[in-house]
Amino acid sequence: MSRYVALDGAQAVAEAMRQINPDVLAAYPITPQTEIVQTFSNFVADGLVDTEFVTVESEHSAMSACVGAAAAGARVMTATASAGLALMWEIVYVAASNRLPIVMPIVNRALSAPINIHCDHSDSMGARDSGWIQLFSETAQEAYDNTIQAPRIAEHPDVLLPVMVCQDGFITSHGLERVDALEDDEVRQFVGTFQPHKPLLDLDNPVTYGPLDFYDYYFEHKRQQVEAMRHAGPVILEVADEFAKLSGRQYGYFAPYKLDDADVALVVINSTAGTARAVADHLRQKGIKAGVLKIRVFRPFPVDEFVAALSNCKVVGVMDRSDSFGAMGGPVFLEACAAFYVNAKRHQPLVKDFIYGLGGRDTTPNQIEDAFRDLVKIGETGEIDELVTYLGVR
Amino acid sequence: MAIALKLKELAQQPERLAPGHRLCAGCAESIIVRQTLHATTDPVVIASATGCLEVATTIYPFTSWRVPWIHNAFENAASTCAGIEAAYRSLVRQGKIEEQNVKFIAFAGDGGTYDIGLQALSGALERGHKMLYICLDNGAYMNTGIQRSGATPHGAWTTTSPAGTVIPGKRRFRKPLTEIIAAHEIPYVAQGSPHNWRDYMKKVQKALDADGPSFINVLSPCPRGWRHETNETIEMARLAWETCFWPLFEVENCEWRITARPREKKPVEEWMKRQGRFRHLFTPANRHVIDKLQAEVDRRWNKLLKLCGEA
User: What is the domain range of residue A31?
Assistant: First the structure.
């Protein structure tokens, strides 16, 4: 049943949260996430949700309260961005390591210093080793859809890992779109009733969460987390198929665009994918076979599927909206190189990195066209002059 | 309805903290925890901060806790406990679980309370969660090897406030934490000590009965950090009270009351001279430090008497 509403990315996520109706929300405001929690606060104040809203005094306490509430046996959500995610970083690891299925919308914003409130991906990339599942959303629609799928992924008994649902700060979060929203009972049925795994509030079966591990057990506990993450990939696809039946919108690990016969392709995350597709179309008219691979699932990184999706491209440009100072390139580039390297027998394109849009720097069609043309030149010469290009820096 | 504190009956109760944990001989923390858990027969869920108690009672694959228990991190016992309490309220309100008169208790050391944990505690108190926060105050970050905290007494040796030739121990006075918590105007705040178990357990009962957040600061002598014999723990607690270094009082709905008053106020050096961490002060050159601490103890005691209307 379709109902179209005009929502920005933050409102879309808040709407999804309203329909999920979590038992507990513990959150602290930070630009550009604030609208999510403010919108949700109105739902709470008007009695439209059953959620216990804990107005914590910092993001560290937000994730701490989420851990307590989730361990207690509640369905729990929070939301943050940038420095807020950085502040809760210690407990972000605790949440994943305790296998708590917390769902957290992230509104991607640059990390300080200098302080910058605009979009880049440094915040969620900084948490990529934490054990959280990471989904990225190009549009308000995708942010809404990902948020609704997130509890099903997180709570799956083979997974039991927290999920972060990311969208671009301001560009998506504050951009008004026509969103196709589901009906309340459809969402309720889709997410189902939360069945907590070993909750603290099962008083007859007391459990201890967060014990001390010496060197004789810690490694095994981490290895178990690895297994959970390995199960997450297939579960993400299963849930996406079920969601497709409900909504008519099919999700996967990626969204490939004109890759079947592309000579050159750009790999991109979140809103810039839209610009990249428009530029690809424009270049196709000029005879350049350009394609785009938009990544939706960054953790777990779907190595083999990534390589397969780009198997026809001779030259791949990875777009990173964050950097890893001291590394060969940005985080997505490093994942891509590793994926291609271990699959070298199958396919080995030439790969380079475009770091763009840091601190909300506008990324224009001209810049993306330059990037594609750079890939074309690499294809012709077989030489990569510059492994990492900083697109749009003055 | 609080249970009667009759020793014979209390001794028959099941032990909710199992023996076999790794706390040092003479550590007051398990004594205090057991006094706490014996003060009520209600079900409890416990959140513990990183510290001696947490580390010594939950070395995987063992646990001493026969009740639901969570350790999250060092600075967030209060916010973790708040999350559990919020979950309970939500699930009961929605009819997803039954109301079961569960009590939510947070245990943390002075490290996890006075210093790194103060923000989380203050926030939880302001939000009015129905939980009891118990600070086990042994006056230093003991679990990491006796480093100074905001609770360390003036002049005490610790590894980060050593008794040197130029600086003779900790330079600052203790943070008046119980007073800071009382300033949050929550329903019940108290200071307790394991040497007077009846006084402490009554306080636990009052705290658990409060319609909102409650806090008890409990003195927890540490033979290792204080440098006294392992069989002197209770005596060290009593002396701290007799010297008025650690008064026993409560603040019930903002009404201050001394709950046990020493018959005779002993000089604070009676307590200090029994502990190796103060030994360096008993020289002519450092005598002034003892005098300064005595003056501060007197000032705070007189201030407390005024607040309690007993001056």
Answer: 3-247
